[in-house]
Amino acid sequence: MNYVFLIFVLTPIIEMWLLIEVGSVIGALPTIALVMLTAVIGITLLRQQGFSTLFRARQKMAEGQIPAREMAEGILLAIGGALLLTPGFVTDAIGFACLLPGSRQLLAASVLKRMQPNIHVNTHFQNGYRGDYQPGDNTDNKGEHTTIEGEFKREDRK
Fold it and tell me: What is the pTM of this model?
């Protein structure tokens, strides 16, 4: 919680300091033009990378896979786009890191690695027995085979 507060307080201060320093070296109008240029480049890159990520997500879903990496990249694209629209050089650098394919894929892999779910499902059977079920396991805790009854309806064919 304290880190988030520090980020929201320190980032604008650092951005203002950098803008003033750059403005004093190259002038006010070129500094404003540079900030606008990074925003335009960022929006263009966001659009291109967003469509690319959306296409890969649709392709994975068509293959019956979960597009987890693409979803993480989509979130990073949104964050990067917002940071590029925020005036400043530090936020632009972080925004470009979120938009450029190589760095974005590394960030997404890091996020997904930390969020790997531990799949464990508790099941209730009709006879009141409660067992622990691991996907791919068809035995209960006593080593006996279990049967789970149910009904299904295919919705992909009409």
Answer: 0.65
| Number of domains the chain is built from | 1
Instruction: Residue 86: give the domain boundaries.
Output: 10-114
- Does 135 reside within a domain? no
Which phi and psi angles does 132 have, rounded to 5°?
Answer: -100, 125
- Domain assignment of residue 131, yes or no: no
Answer left, alpha or beta for residue 136, where phi above 0 means left and psi between -120 and 50 means alpha. Answer: left
Q: Which residues of 18-52 are buried (b: 16+ CB within 10 A; e: fewer)?
A: ebeebeeeeeeeebeebbeebbeebeebbeebbee
Write out pLDDT tens, residues 31-87.
999 999 998 998 999 999 999 999 999 999 998 888 888 888 999 999 999 998 888
